[in-house]
Amino acid sequence: MKIDILTLFPGMFEGPFNTSMLKNAQDDGLVEINIHDLRTWTKDKHKTADDRPFGGGTGMIIKVEPVYEALKSLKSKHKKPRIILLSPQGKVYSQKKAEQLSKLEHIILIAGHYEGFDERIREHLIDGEISIGNYVLTGGELPAMVVTDSIVRLIPEVLDPAATQNESFSQPKTDNQKPTTVLDYPTYTRPANFKGWKVPEILLSGNHAEIEKWRKQESLKKTKKNRPELLD
Rounded to a whole number, what is the distance in angstroms from the first to the last CA of the chain? Predict the structure, then answer.
């Protein structure tokens, strides 16, 4: 898979993409992640990628020209990339969307900044728009990192398949049932007793059938408490 990210602040990506799973996936050739400075495709000596909005208003708007030129350059090297704008105006991101994107060959993420984008970018240049939640950040760089991380971890061979099958939002469906959307069950490790805080006895029993039953019950209990809207 290839992921290209357009941004005005490429330095923001140096730490997260050069450590842990994302670095390993790149080193192993499972994903190629390229960070591009949007100012590369500007044409004036000041490298201007934003301007004041027509009609007045606060803030600066990302210009359409550099985005157009950047996408034309990136698309000329690869066939049919999926172009996604990171914006609070987009559809709220989900695990299901991450799974869909992880199956693509080439994705281009556009991380905006300042007050927003020239609307013509939305109208003519992108395939979709993603928001990572109902709140506003200073830019799309952090959402681009979130989306990239969620996609890369689902690429085959990046993680053990078992690691992503039964986690929150990813439980497989059972026979004649809809897929279950619940939070992950509680997990514990040694010591079994810390300051009087004890690990549930069932987890120490060695009875795997009962442990599995307990885990399912605890998943439902946690979901009902923390995210009741997920339950059917």
Answer: 35
In the chain, the domains with their CATH numbers are: 2-152 (3.40.1280.10), 166-230 (1.10.1270.20)
The CA distance from 15 to 7, in Å, is 15
Cβ atoms 84, 96 nearer than 8 A: no
Hey, which bits of the chain come out as E strands? 2-7, 32-37, 50-51, 61-62, 82-92, 106-111, 116-117, 128-131, 193-194, 197-198
Residue pair 219/212 in contact (Cβ under 8 Å)? The answer is no
For residue 227, give Cα distances in angstroms to 88, 122, 215. 22, 32, 17
Q: Are 117 and 89 in contact (CB under 8 A)?
A: no
**3-class secondary-structure state, position 220:** helix
Instruction: In whole angstroms, give the CA distance from residue 6 to residue 24.
Output: 22
Which residues in the chain come in under a pLDDT of 50? 174-175
In 3D, which of 39, 44, 182, 161 has the Cα closest to residue 102? 161
Express each pLDDT in 65-121 by its tens digit. Answer: 999 999 999 987 667 899 999 999 999 999 999 999 999 999 999 998 888 899 999
Beta-bridged to residue 78, according to DSSP, are: none
